[in-house]
Amino acid sequence: MNSTLRILFIVHALVTFAAAVVLIAAPAAIPGAVDIKMGQDQFLLCYFLGAAELAIAYLSFQSRKITDAKALRIIVISFIIFHTATGLLEAFGATQGISPKIIANIVLRILIVSLLYYFGLHRYSNNPNKQNSSAQ
After folding, report:
1. Cβ-based neighbours of 97, under 8 Å, separated by 6 or more
2. Cα–Cα distance for residue pair 67/5, rounded to 1 Å
3. How many CB atoms lie within 10 A of CB 9?
4. How many of the other CB atoms lie within 10 Å of CB of 103?
5. Largest CA distance in the chain
6. DSSP, res 26
7. What angle do CA 20, 106, 76 make, to 5 degrees?
8. Rounded to 5 degrees, what are φ and ψ at 68?
9. Do 120 and 72 contact (CB within 8 A), yes or no?
10. How far apart, in whole angstroms, are the C-alpha atoms of residue 23 and residue 42?
11. What pLDDT tens digit does each residue of the chain (136 aa) get?
12. Are 61 and 13 in contact (CB under 8 A)?
């Protein structure tokens, strides 16, 4: 694995972990940042998302040590699917009346998908020095 992808996994893990902590400890904070009002009876949705974010953060952090090309490809594609789907749903939400403040998050997701694609799929798959999973 290249060092840039390793750093990307670590940064991704830290940001995702921070989002999980906020979603669990202050469930109205992230929705409130885009003018979505949530009552206590709706916090369970934030707790579920926070739990999923914790799992993604753990996977991202542990992925920094993986050298198997096939496993890394599966992980990177999973992260790309997650962030692409979330970005598309945020864009849909923006058309349904969610605050335009959500656009910053959509841009962030486009950036992370682009970085994951470039460093996790394109650049890594074109690197002749990568570890070949079939050689193990």
Report:
1. none
2. 11
3. 26
4. 14
5. 54
6. S
7. 65
8. -70, 120
9. yes
10. 12
11. 688 999 999 999 999 999 999 999 999 999 999 888 999 999 999 999 999 999 999 999 999 999 998 999 999 999 999 999 999 999 999 999 888 999 999 999 999 999 999 999 886 665 545 544 433 3
12. yes
Please choose, from the candidates 44, 40, 30, the residue with its C-alpha nearest in 3D space to the C-alpha of residue 101. 30
Phi, psi of 12 (to 5 degrees): -60, -45
Q: How far is CA 114 from CA 81, 88, 118, 120, 132, in A?
A: 12, 15, 6, 10, 24
Structure tokens at 23: 């979603």
Structure tokens at 4: 């840039």
Residue with structure tokens 């991202």? 60
In the 8-state DSSP scheme, what is residue 133? Answer: G
Q: Where are the beta strands (DSSP E) in 26-98?
A: none
**Overall residue count recorded for the chain in this entry:** 136
The predicted model scores a pTM of 0.84
Question: Would you give the distance in Å from CA 28 to the centre of its chain?
Answer: 20
- Per-residue exposure over 16-49, b if at least 16 CB sit within 10 Å of its own CB, e if not: bbebbebbbeebbebbeebebeeeeeebeebeeb
